[in-house]
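Try this one yourself first.
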């Protein structure tokens, strides 16, 4: 085989992995050039950044990094994970060792979460539904999966793992609010911890005026801003667990204003959580420990979380949805929300270089930390006036201070 220097157009998908370089994480910037060939069979190309003279492998940041498996085997491993094949079955189908399957799961999960953290930011989300589901781990152990999905586009905004508490719910809400351009409309089930978690993240401080001149001053409290719209779908079950009644209630925003917002945001006219229920149906069918009745329990908590994260990434960018189809053109949730312009193939997903940006990661962590800090404990940050600046509508910025009680 005679090796030749590839044309420059081949390097449009690559970017410099050096965080200190001016062209870091900027593909198609014209700064990537061919350096040499490496590997036992001289089949791996080494590249060079002309801006900072950093040399790196073409496999850096991809699922082929530090792997001796051929590309077709990695594609089969990814497809087996996408269709929910068990680990032993995946090893048999791909003709690899079980440890190889576990190593691939670990690498793919870390890369999927890192890619999601960097790509799903500042998205236009009109409505969000979120819910929690339990998964069976070892005997007598339960792992709760908390998920938020965007209405209309089916994009999975965030997945969190932890106990079914208000703190976990607040963390999920903070992740959604920090990644959305404006405060979306929220729909959930009837869990009582959700309203308090919403107030903890986006609530503003209300300081009532004291009536008269005698007595203690009323204590300030958190109230919902005018831009917050939140409703619940409450299911009443009997002793056997069957649903006997379903009621809908608007918690924040008022019934008439809430339904008006549904029509204005083109989210339908019905208060429902169908998007969330449909996603959990898909998740339970493809991840065995999440099924209702199963003997396939997860004995490793990181491996269990990794399977969910990998499926979330594939669902957003690789798996087309029938409900999103436009004519004969298939679309993925990432296409529907504007993160990409085509359906990714398995090979494109494998060879996509993902480099963690420390600056953007720090900025996002600080934004989430500010959202999780209760406004009553941190008045200097501006939470006494309104939620974070990027979440406030233009007509509410002028009337940010809440009215005092008469």
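Now uncover the answer:
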């Amino acid at each position: 085989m005679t090796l030749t220097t590839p044309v420059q157009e081949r390097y449009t998908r690559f970017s410099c992995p050096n965080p200190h370089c001016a062209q870091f994480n900027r593909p198609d910037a014209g700064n990537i050039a061919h350096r040499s060939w490496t590997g036992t069979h001289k089949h791996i190309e080494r590249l060079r950044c002309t801006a900072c003279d950093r040399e790196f492998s073409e496999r850096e940041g991809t699922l082929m990094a530090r792997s001796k498996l051929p590309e077709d085997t990695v594609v089969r491993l990814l497809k087996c994970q996408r269709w929910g094949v068990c680990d032993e079955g995946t090893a048999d189908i791909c003709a690899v060792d079980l440890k190889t399957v576990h190593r691939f799961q670990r690498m793919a999960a870390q890369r999927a979460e890192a890619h999601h953290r960097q790509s799903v930011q500042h998205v236009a989300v009109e409505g969000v539904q979120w819910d929690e589901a339990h998964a069976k781990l070892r005997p007598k152990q339960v792992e709760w999966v908390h998920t938020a999905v965007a209405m209309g586009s089916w994009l999975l905004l965030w997945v969190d793992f932890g106990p079914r508490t208000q703190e976990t719910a607040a963390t999920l809400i903070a992740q959604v609010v920090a990644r959305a351009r404006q405060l979306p409309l929220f729909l959930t089930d009837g869990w009582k911890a959700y309203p308090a978690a919403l107030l903890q993240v986006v609530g503003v401080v209300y300081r009532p005026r004291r009536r008269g001149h005698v007595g203690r001053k009323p204590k300030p409290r958190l109230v919902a801003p005018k831009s917050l719209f939140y409703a619940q779908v409450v299911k009443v079950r009997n002793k056997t667990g069957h649903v006997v009644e379903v009621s809908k209630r608007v918690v924040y925003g008022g019934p008439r204003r809430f339904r008006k917002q549904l029509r204005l945001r083109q989210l339908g006219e019905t208060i429902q959580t169908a998007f969330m229920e449909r996603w959990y149906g898909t998740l339970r069918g493809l991840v065995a420990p999440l099924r209702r009745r199963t003997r396939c329990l997860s004995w490793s908590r990181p491996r269990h979380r990794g399977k969910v994260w990998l499926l979330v990434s594939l669902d957003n960018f690789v798996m087309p949805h029938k409900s999103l189809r436009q004519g004969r053109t298939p679309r993925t949730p990432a296409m529907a929300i504007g993160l990409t312009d085509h359906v990714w193939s398995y090979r494109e997903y494998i060879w996509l270089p993902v480099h963690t940006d420390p600056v953007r990661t720090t900025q996002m962590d600080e934004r989430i930390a500010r959202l999780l800090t209760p406004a009553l404990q941190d008045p200097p940050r501006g939470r006494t006036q309104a939620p974070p600046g990027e979440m406030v509508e233009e007509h509410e910025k002028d009337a940010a201070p809440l009215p005092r009680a008469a």
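Discussion: DSSP finds twelve helices and 13 strands in the chain. Residues 98-119 form the longest helix (22 residues).
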